[in-house]
Amino acid sequence: MATLKKLSLSILVCLTLACNASSSTSFDELFQSSWASDHLIHEGDLLKLKLDNFSGAGFASKRKYMYGKTTAQIKLVEGDSAGTVTAFYMSSDGASHHEFDFEFLGNTTGEPYLVQTNIYIDGIGNREQRMDLWFDPTADFHSYSILYHPRQVVFAVDETPIRVYREQNGVAFPRDQAMGVYSSIWNADDWATQGGRVKTDWSHAPFVTTYREVEIEGCECATSEDLKRCNGSTAGNNWWDQPMMAELSVHQSHQLIWVRANHLVYDYCADPGRFPVLPPECERGRV
């Protein structure tokens, strides 16, 4: 297992077949601005994305990966963040893409942030869950991670799992497309806060999301041969392929039960108005 070191604004990548220990490179070597580069600001060990009434901003990894884990240490927009969305996610390209989303939905001052997760498989999403958090995500940095395993996708907050999407018979599972890592901030006041009833108050701009660390540890894929390699000949040689990573531990399972019991505020599997016939993964309770 590679040792994952945490360095300020560094990306740590362990390539399949390539390394027994992680190597570090600068943020700019592995990430680039994806839009509005003038709204992406470096301040020492911090990176900031700014939203104002002219533009939001985003960054994207220069490479794509198959399986592994990505984590961002994020402090969300302080104060009145209504109408804003900060996203941290993995995605492949094209209409039939796969995507794993964290979307942080801003709110009026004093009201809690909501964290929406969603999963797209072959271009089809509509798998939203929303939760509030057990801390103030604007007061300090917290870690948000996506574990992409051949058997499960796990969303975690400060290493506490909040959602699991598992491989199972008869249910689509993403395993054939390399994915980039992305983050952005933008205005979504048509839907993000209380269903769009509360609009962005631009007198409070700029809205700033701050990053202290962004990390990737996964199998880098640049070609179709890389994709075969990540899925095939090296399977079992990486920490994310180990049997213990294929399912939650007993402790993690208890954490997930606690989170869902105390902080889940919306689950597409419990919305018969949208889904009179439950999606197959919901019928098995595996989302």
Structural overview:
Its EC number is 2.4.1.207. Keywords: Apoplast, Cell wall, Cell wall biogenesis/degradation, Disulfide bond, Glycosidase, Hydrolase, Secreted, Signal, Transferase. The active site is at residues 99, 103. It comes from Acorus calamus. With 287 residues, the chain is mostly beta strands. The chain is 10% helix and 39% strand. It is built from four helices and 17 strands. The protein has helices spanning 27-30, 224-231, 250-263, 280-283; strands at residues 10-13, 23-26, 31-35, 40-43, 46-51, 57-61, 64-75, 84-91, 99-105, 114-120, 129-131, 142-148, 152-157, 160-166, 180-187, 207-221, 264-267. The strands form three sheets. The chain has an eight-stranded antiparallel β-sheet with strand order 3-6-15-8-9-10-11-17. Strands 4-5-16-7-12-13-14 form a seven-stranded antiparallel β-sheet. A two-stranded antiparallel ribbon has the order 1-2. The protein starts with 9 loop residues before the first strand and ends with a helix.
